[in-house]
Protein backbone atom coordinates (compact mmCIF):
# COMPACT_ATOMS: atom_id res chain seq x y z
CA UNK A 1 0.00 0.00 0.00
CA UNK A 2 1.60 3.37 -1.07
CA UNK A 3 2.39 5.98 1.56
CA UNK A 4 0.40 9.15 1.05
CA UNK A 5 0.82 12.64 2.48
CA UNK A 6 -1.04 15.89 2.33
CA UNK A 7 1.35 17.90 0.15
CA UNK A 8 1.81 21.64 -0.22
CA UNK A 9 -0.17 21.47 -3.44
CA UNK A 10 -3.06 19.86 -1.58
CA UNK A 11 -3.08 22.57 1.09
CA UNK A 12 -2.22 25.52 -1.12
CA UNK A 13 -5.64 27.08 -0.68
CA UNK A 14 -5.08 27.19 3.10
CA UNK A 15 -1.59 28.71 3.03
CA UNK A 16 -1.53 32.49 3.30
CA UNK A 17 1.36 34.50 1.91
CA UNK A 18 3.28 36.59 4.42
CA UNK A 19 2.66 40.29 3.93
CA UNK A 20 5.51 42.54 4.97
CA UNK A 21 4.24 45.48 6.98
CA UNK A 22 6.20 48.00 4.91
CA UNK A 23 6.21 48.88 1.24
CA UNK A 24 9.62 48.74 -0.44
CA UNK A 25 10.12 52.23 -1.80
CA UNK A 26 12.46 55.18 -1.81
CA UNK A 27 11.86 58.11 0.52
CA UNK A 28 10.06 61.05 -1.14
CA UNK A 29 12.35 63.85 -2.32
CA UNK A 30 11.31 67.46 -1.85
CA UNK A 31 12.04 70.66 -3.81
CA UNK A 32 15.70 71.69 -3.90
CA UNK A 33 14.74 75.22 -4.99
CA UNK A 34 12.54 75.77 -1.95
CA UNK A 35 15.31 74.39 0.23
CA UNK A 36 17.93 76.85 -1.06
CA UNK A 37 15.97 79.99 -2.03
CA UNK A 38 14.86 82.62 0.48
CA UNK A 39 11.30 82.27 1.72
CA UNK A 40 9.28 85.46 2.08
CA UNK A 41 6.17 85.89 4.25
CA UNK A 42 3.10 84.15 2.87
CA UNK A 43 1.22 86.00 0.15
CA UNK A 44 -2.14 87.52 1.06
CA UNK A 45 -3.32 87.90 -2.54
CA UNK A 46 -2.55 86.49 -5.95
CA UNK A 47 0.18 89.08 -6.55
CA UNK A 48 2.77 90.47 -4.16
CA UNK A 49 4.86 93.58 -4.85
CA UNK A 50 8.49 93.86 -3.74
CA UNK A 51 10.14 97.31 -3.85
CA UNK A 52 13.65 96.84 -5.26
CA UNK A 53 16.52 99.33 -5.38
CA UNK A 54 16.80 100.37 -9.03
CA UNK A 55 19.23 103.31 -9.03
CA UNK A 56 22.05 104.21 -6.68
CA UNK A 57 23.05 107.75 -5.68
CA UNK A 58 26.46 109.11 -6.62
CA UNK A 59 28.85 111.57 -4.93
CA UNK A 60 31.07 114.11 -6.68
CA UNK A 61 34.30 115.90 -5.86
CA UNK A 62 33.94 119.66 -5.45
CA UNK A 63 36.36 121.73 -7.52
CA UNK A 64 37.87 124.33 -5.22
CA UNK A 65 36.47 126.28 -2.29
CA UNK A 66 33.60 127.77 -4.28
CA UNK A 67 32.91 124.84 -6.61
CA UNK A 68 29.37 123.77 -7.33
CA UNK A 69 28.17 120.62 -5.65
CA UNK A 70 26.58 118.03 -7.93
CA UNK A 71 23.17 116.48 -7.42
CA UNK A 72 22.12 112.88 -7.59
CA UNK A 73 19.05 110.69 -7.29
CA UNK A 74 18.01 107.28 -6.04
CA UNK A 75 15.14 105.23 -7.47
CA UNK A 76 13.21 102.06 -6.77
CA UNK A 77 11.43 99.58 -9.00
CA UNK A 78 8.68 97.04 -8.40
CA UNK A 79 9.15 93.30 -8.75
CA UNK A 80 6.01 91.18 -8.60
CA UNK A 81 5.45 87.64 -7.36
CA UNK A 82 2.43 86.05 -9.01
CA UNK A 83 0.93 83.01 -7.32
CA UNK A 84 0.23 80.07 -9.60
CA UNK A 85 -1.46 76.82 -8.69
CA UNK A 86 -0.21 73.25 -8.69
CA UNK A 87 -2.96 70.70 -8.18
CA UNK A 88 -3.85 67.07 -8.79
CA UNK A 89 -6.77 64.74 -8.16
CA UNK A 90 -6.31 61.02 -7.47
CA UNK A 91 -9.60 59.05 -7.90
CA UNK A 92 -9.85 55.69 -6.07
CA UNK A 93 -12.78 53.26 -5.76
CA UNK A 94 -13.93 52.98 -2.15
CA UNK A 95 -13.86 49.20 -2.38
CA UNK A 96 -10.17 49.31 -3.18
CA UNK A 97 -9.48 51.47 -0.14
CA UNK A 98 -11.55 49.18 2.10
CA UNK A 99 -9.87 45.98 0.88
CA UNK A 100 -6.29 47.26 0.87
CA UNK A 101 -3.90 46.01 3.55
CA UNK A 102 -2.19 49.41 3.64
CA UNK A 103 -3.24 53.00 4.16
CA UNK A 104 -3.48 53.92 0.47
CA UNK A 105 -4.14 57.58 1.16
CA UNK A 106 -1.18 57.73 3.50
CA UNK A 107 1.03 56.24 0.80
CA UNK A 108 -0.18 58.57 -1.95
CA UNK A 109 0.17 61.90 -0.15
CA UNK A 110 4.01 61.87 0.24
CA UNK A 111 4.37 61.00 -3.45
CA UNK A 112 2.13 63.88 -4.45
CA UNK A 113 4.29 66.18 -2.33
CA UNK A 114 7.34 64.87 -4.19
CA UNK A 115 5.60 65.58 -7.50
CA UNK A 116 4.96 69.16 -6.37
CA UNK A 117 8.66 69.57 -5.58
CA UNK A 118 9.57 68.22 -9.00
CA UNK A 119 7.30 70.72 -10.74
CA UNK A 120 8.54 73.66 -8.68
CA UNK A 121 12.19 72.85 -9.41
CA UNK A 122 11.49 72.23 -13.08
CA UNK A 123 9.70 75.56 -13.57
CA UNK A 124 11.95 77.82 -11.48
CA UNK A 125 15.34 76.37 -12.43
CA UNK A 126 14.84 74.94 -15.93
CA UNK A 127 11.65 76.59 -17.21
CA UNK A 128 9.89 73.24 -17.71
CA UNK A 129 6.11 73.81 -17.88
CA UNK A 130 6.66 77.33 -16.53
CA UNK A 131 3.40 79.25 -15.94
CA UNK A 132 2.98 82.07 -18.46
CA UNK A 133 2.81 84.73 -15.72
CA UNK A 134 6.15 83.72 -14.21
CA UNK A 135 9.46 85.35 -15.08
CA UNK A 136 12.20 83.49 -16.97
CA UNK A 137 13.78 80.56 -15.17
CA UNK A 138 17.23 80.65 -13.56
CA UNK A 139 19.03 78.98 -16.48
CA UNK A 140 17.50 81.31 -19.08
CA UNK A 141 18.35 84.34 -16.95
CA UNK A 142 21.95 83.15 -16.58
CA UNK A 143 22.24 82.56 -20.33
CA UNK A 144 21.08 86.10 -21.16
CA UNK A 145 23.80 87.44 -18.85
CA UNK A 146 26.44 85.31 -20.58
CA UNK A 147 26.85 83.10 -17.52
CA UNK A 148 26.76 79.82 -19.44
CA UNK A 149 30.07 77.94 -19.71
CA UNK A 150 30.61 75.45 -22.53
CA UNK A 151 32.61 72.32 -21.59
CA UNK A 152 34.39 71.98 -24.95
CA UNK A 153 35.62 68.76 -26.50
CA UNK A 154 38.27 67.97 -23.83
CA UNK A 155 36.83 69.46 -20.66
CA UNK A 156 39.07 70.46 -17.76
CA UNK A 157 36.47 70.47 -15.01
CA UNK A 158 38.71 72.19 -12.50
CA UNK A 159 39.01 75.25 -14.75
CA UNK A 160 35.38 75.04 -15.87
CA UNK A 161 34.19 75.18 -12.27
CA UNK A 162 36.85 76.99 -10.25
CA UNK A 163 39.13 78.72 -12.76
CA UNK A 164 38.97 82.17 -14.28
CA UNK A 165 35.98 82.28 -16.61
CA UNK A 166 34.46 79.25 -14.87
CA UNK A 167 30.97 79.12 -13.43
CA UNK A 168 32.00 80.45 -10.01
CA UNK A 169 33.94 83.29 -11.60
CA UNK A 170 30.88 84.23 -13.67
CA UNK A 171 28.83 84.69 -10.51
CA UNK A 172 31.58 86.68 -8.81
CA UNK A 173 31.72 89.05 -11.78
CA UNK A 174 28.17 90.07 -10.89
CA UNK A 175 29.29 91.05 -7.40
CA UNK A 176 27.82 88.00 -5.69
CA UNK A 177 29.26 85.04 -3.82
CA UNK A 178 28.23 81.47 -4.60
CA UNK A 179 26.23 80.00 -1.72
CA UNK A 180 25.32 76.66 -3.27
CA UNK A 181 25.66 74.36 -6.26
CA UNK A 182 23.07 72.02 -7.75
CA UNK A 183 24.08 69.23 -10.07
CA UNK A 184 22.95 65.97 -11.59
CA UNK A 185 23.98 62.67 -10.01
CA UNK A 186 26.10 61.96 -13.10
CA UNK A 187 28.34 64.90 -12.16
CA UNK A 188 29.61 63.15 -9.04
CA UNK A 189 31.86 60.83 -11.02
CA UNK A 190 33.28 63.76 -12.97
CA UNK A 191 34.01 65.61 -9.74
CA UNK A 192 35.79 62.61 -8.28
CA UNK A 193 38.01 62.61 -11.37
CA UNK A 194 39.20 66.21 -10.90
CA UNK A 195 42.90 66.32 -9.94
CA UNK A 196 45.29 69.10 -9.01
CA UNK A 197 48.58 69.78 -10.80
CA UNK A 198 50.26 67.01 -8.83
CA UNK A 199 47.65 64.46 -9.84
CA UNK A 200 45.91 64.33 -6.46
CA UNK A 201 42.09 64.17 -6.40
CA UNK A 202 40.40 67.41 -5.34
CA UNK A 203 37.41 65.56 -3.89
CA UNK A 204 39.13 63.08 -1.59
CA UNK A 205 37.24 59.94 -0.69
CA UNK A 206 37.98 56.99 1.58
CA UNK A 207 36.38 53.66 2.39
CA UNK A 208 35.11 54.77 5.81
CA UNK A 209 33.14 57.94 5.14
CA UNK A 210 31.09 59.68 2.49
CA UNK A 211 32.72 62.18 0.16
CA UNK A 212 31.89 65.77 1.07
CA UNK A 213 31.17 67.74 -2.10
CA UNK A 214 31.65 71.50 -2.10
CA UNK A 215 32.85 74.12 -4.57
CA UNK A 216 35.03 76.85 -3.09
CA UNK A 217 33.31 76.29 0.25
CA UNK A 218 29.77 76.29 -1.17
CA UNK A 219 27.86 73.05 -0.49
CA UNK A 220 26.73 70.92 -3.41
CA UNK A 221 23.33 69.30 -3.77
CA UNK A 222 22.31 66.45 -6.04
CA UNK A 223 18.50 66.47 -6.42
CA UNK A 224 16.91 63.04 -6.53
CA UNK A 225 13.33 64.09 -7.23
CA UNK A 226 13.81 63.78 -10.99
CA UNK A 227 13.78 67.53 -11.64
CA UNK A 228 17.38 68.06 -12.78
CA UNK A 229 17.37 68.29 -16.58
CA UNK A 230 20.74 67.00 -17.81
CA UNK A 231 19.91 68.08 -21.37
CA UNK A 232 20.05 71.72 -20.25
CA UNK A 233 22.86 71.82 -17.68
CA UNK A 234 25.44 69.71 -15.92
CA UNK A 235 25.81 71.95 -12.88
CA UNK A 236 24.32 75.22 -11.60
CA UNK A 237 25.92 77.55 -9.07
CA UNK A 238 24.75 80.83 -7.63
CA UNK A 239 23.80 83.03 -4.75
CA UNK A 240 20.53 81.36 -3.92
CA UNK A 241 19.65 84.05 -1.38
CA UNK A 242 18.88 86.26 -4.38
CA UNK A 243 16.04 83.93 -5.40
CA UNK A 244 12.89 84.45 -3.35
CA UNK A 245 9.54 82.71 -3.15
CA UNK A 246 6.32 83.08 -1.23
CA UNK A 247 3.44 80.72 -0.63
CA UNK A 248 -0.11 81.86 -1.29
CA UNK A 249 -1.73 78.59 -0.27
CA UNK A 250 0.23 75.87 1.46
CA UNK A 251 -0.40 72.28 0.46
CA UNK A 252 -4.02 71.44 1.24
CA UNK A 253 -5.45 67.95 1.00
CA UNK A 254 -9.16 67.26 0.67
CA UNK A 255 -11.03 63.97 0.28
CA UNK A 256 -13.95 64.29 -2.15
CA UNK A 257 -16.86 61.83 -2.34
CA UNK A 258 -19.22 63.94 -4.43
CA UNK A 259 -18.84 65.40 -7.90
CA UNK A 260 -17.54 64.24 -11.26
CA UNK A 261 -14.08 63.88 -12.81
CA UNK A 262 -13.75 65.29 -16.34
CA UNK A 263 -11.11 64.78 -18.99
CA UNK A 264 -9.15 68.11 -19.05
CA UNK A 265 -8.98 68.09 -22.85
CA UNK A 266 -12.35 66.77 -24.02
CA UNK A 267 -14.36 67.81 -20.91
CA UNK A 268 -15.99 64.39 -21.05
CA UNK A 269 -17.14 63.03 -17.68
CA UNK A 270 -14.93 60.05 -16.79
CA UNK A 271 -16.03 59.29 -13.23
CA UNK A 272 -19.05 60.14 -11.11
CA UNK A 273 -17.81 59.76 -7.55
CA UNK A 274 -21.18 59.31 -5.86
CA UNK A 275 -22.65 57.05 -8.51
CA UNK A 276 -19.59 54.83 -8.76
CA UNK A 277 -18.75 54.68 -5.03
CA UNK A 278 -15.42 56.44 -5.42
CA UNK A 279 -13.42 58.98 -3.49
CA UNK A 280 -10.82 61.41 -4.81
CA UNK A 281 -7.77 62.86 -3.11
CA UNK A 282 -7.38 66.52 -4.16
CA UNK A 283 -4.11 68.32 -3.45
CA UNK A 284 -3.65 72.06 -4.10
CA UNK A 285 -0.57 74.27 -3.72
CA UNK A 286 -0.03 77.92 -4.77
CA UNK A 287 3.21 79.89 -4.81
CA UNK A 288 5.13 82.63 -6.63
CA UNK A 289 8.81 83.42 -7.01
CA UNK A 290 11.16 86.11 -8.30
CA UNK A 291 14.77 87.19 -8.84
CA UNK A 292 14.63 90.81 -7.59
CA UNK A 293 18.28 91.55 -8.57
CA UNK A 294 18.60 94.92 -6.80
CA UNK A 295 21.11 97.43 -8.09
CA UNK A 296 24.62 97.21 -6.65
CA UNK A 297 27.80 99.19 -7.21
CA UNK A 298 29.00 96.38 -9.46
CA UNK A 299 25.69 96.12 -11.32
CA UNK A 300 24.06 99.53 -11.44
CA UNK A 301 21.95 98.59 -14.48
CA UNK A 302 20.62 95.36 -12.92
CA UNK A 303 21.61 93.38 -16.01
CA UNK A 304 23.93 90.83 -14.39
CA UNK A 305 22.88 87.51 -12.90
CA UNK A 306 23.86 85.85 -9.64
CA UNK A 307 23.69 82.38 -11.21
CA UNK A 308 25.82 80.50 -13.75
CA UNK A 309 25.77 77.02 -15.20
CA UNK A 310 27.90 74.47 -17.00
CA UNK A 311 26.33 73.46 -20.29
CA UNK A 312 25.92 69.83 -21.32
CA UNK A 313 28.13 68.39 -24.07
CA UNK A 314 25.39 69.28 -26.56
CA UNK A 315 24.01 72.70 -25.71
CA UNK A 316 20.35 73.52 -26.27
CA UNK A 317 19.40 75.28 -29.48
CA UNK A 318 18.88 79.02 -29.08
CA UNK A 319 18.85 81.89 -31.54
CA UNK A 320 20.32 85.37 -31.25
CA UNK A 321 17.65 88.05 -31.18
CA UNK A 322 19.10 91.53 -31.75
CA UNK A 323 17.15 94.65 -30.82
CA UNK A 324 18.02 98.00 -32.38
CA UNK A 325 16.41 100.90 -30.51
CA UNK A 326 16.14 104.32 -32.17
CA UNK A 327 14.36 107.59 -31.43
CA UNK A 328 12.03 107.24 -34.40
CA UNK A 329 11.51 105.21 -37.54
CA UNK A 330 12.84 107.52 -40.28
CA UNK A 331 16.26 107.65 -41.88
CA UNK A 332 17.28 110.43 -39.53
CA UNK A 333 16.43 108.41 -36.41
CA UNK A 334 19.37 108.08 -34.00
CA UNK A 335 20.34 105.20 -31.75
CA UNK A 336 19.11 105.29 -28.15
CA UNK A 337 21.86 104.14 -25.77
CA UNK A 338 21.10 102.59 -22.37
CA UNK A 339 17.53 101.75 -23.36
CA UNK A 340 16.09 98.91 -21.31
CA UNK A 341 14.86 95.83 -23.13
CA UNK A 342 13.08 93.37 -20.84
CA UNK A 343 11.78 89.89 -21.71
CA UNK A 344 10.17 87.67 -19.06
CA UNK A 345 11.82 89.63 -16.27
CA UNK A 346 15.31 89.57 -17.84
CA UNK A 347 16.69 93.05 -18.51
CA UNK A 348 19.44 94.16 -20.89
CA UNK A 349 20.68 97.64 -21.84
CA UNK A 350 21.48 98.88 -25.33
CA UNK A 351 24.99 100.06 -26.14
CA UNK A 352 26.08 103.27 -27.82
CA UNK A 353 24.80 101.85 -31.11
CA UNK A 354 21.33 101.27 -29.64
CA UNK A 355 21.70 97.51 -29.87
CA UNK A 356 21.45 94.62 -27.45
CA UNK A 357 20.98 90.89 -27.97
CA UNK A 358 19.18 88.00 -26.29
CA UNK A 359 19.70 84.25 -26.71
CA UNK A 360 16.20 82.78 -26.98
CA UNK A 361 14.72 79.38 -27.68
CA UNK A 362 11.93 78.94 -30.21
CA UNK A 363 8.73 80.69 -29.20
CA UNK A 364 6.93 84.01 -29.10
CA UNK A 365 8.05 86.67 -26.62
CA UNK A 366 6.88 90.08 -25.48
CA UNK A 367 9.72 92.61 -25.19
CA UNK A 368 9.20 95.73 -23.07
CA UNK A 369 11.43 98.59 -24.27
CA UNK A 370 11.89 101.76 -22.23
CA UNK A 371 14.29 104.69 -21.96
CA UNK A 372 14.37 107.92 -20.01
CA UNK A 373 12.46 110.61 -21.89
CA UNK A 374 10.59 108.13 -24.13
CA UNK A 375 7.27 106.31 -23.95
CA UNK A 376 7.53 102.62 -23.12
CA UNK A 377 6.59 100.24 -25.93
CA UNK A 378 5.97 96.50 -26.05
CA UNK A 379 7.06 94.54 -29.11
CA UNK A 380 6.24 90.92 -30.00
CA UNK A 381 9.11 88.75 -31.23
CA UNK A 382 8.78 85.26 -32.71
CA UNK A 383 11.84 83.01 -32.69
CA UNK A 384 12.06 79.94 -34.91
CA UNK A 385 15.18 78.39 -36.44
CA UNK A 386 17.20 81.47 -37.36
CA UNK A 387 18.58 84.66 -35.86
CA UNK A 388 16.13 87.56 -35.54
CA UNK A 389 16.67 91.30 -35.92
CA UNK A 390 14.08 93.59 -34.37
CA UNK A 391 13.92 97.37 -34.88
CA UNK A 392 12.22 99.37 -32.16
CA UNK A 393 11.16 103.01 -32.59
CA UNK A 394 10.65 105.07 -29.42
CA UNK A 395 8.62 108.26 -29.17
CA UNK A 396 9.82 111.15 -27.03
CA UNK A 397 7.54 112.33 -24.23
Which quaternary structure do these chains form?
A: single chain
Broad structural category: alpha+beta
Helix content: 10-25%
How do the SSEs run, as a string of H and E?
Answer: HEEEEHHHEHHEHEEEEEEEEEEEEEEE
Q: What is the total tally of β strands?
A: 21
- What is the CA-atom radius of gyration, in angstroms? 28 Å
As for the number of domains, it is: 2
Can you count the helices?
A: 7
Taking the sheet with the most strands, its summary is:
6 strands, mixed
State which percent range the strand residues make up.
Answer: 25-35%
Shape descriptor reads globular
Poorly predicted residue ranges: 18-28
Q: End-to-end distance, in Å?
A: 115 Å
Overall pLDDT confidence: 87
Q: Looking across the biggest beta sheet, what order are the strands in? A: 5-14-9-6-8-7
What report would you give on this structure?
- Helices cover 15% and strands 31% of the residues.
- By secondary structure, it is α+β, with helices and mostly antiparallel strands.
- The chain has 2 domains: 81-297, no CATH class; 319-393, Immunoglobulin-like.
- The protein has a 6-stranded mixed β-sheet, sandwiched between helices. A 4-stranded mixed β-sheet has the order 1-10-13-4.
- Strand 11 and strand 12 form a beta hairpin.
- The chain is globular.
Amino acid sequence: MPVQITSRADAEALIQEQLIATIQQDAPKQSIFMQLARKLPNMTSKQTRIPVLDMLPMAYWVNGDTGMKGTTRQAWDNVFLTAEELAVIVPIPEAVVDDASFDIMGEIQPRVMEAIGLRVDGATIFGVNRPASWRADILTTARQAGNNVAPGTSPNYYDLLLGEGGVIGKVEESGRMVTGAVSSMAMRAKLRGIKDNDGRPIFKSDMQGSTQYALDGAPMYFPQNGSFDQTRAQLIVGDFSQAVYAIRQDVTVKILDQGVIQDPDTKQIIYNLAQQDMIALRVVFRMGWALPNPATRMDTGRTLCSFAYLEPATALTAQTVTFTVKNGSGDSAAAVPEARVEIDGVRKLTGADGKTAFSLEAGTYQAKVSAKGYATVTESVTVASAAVSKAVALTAV
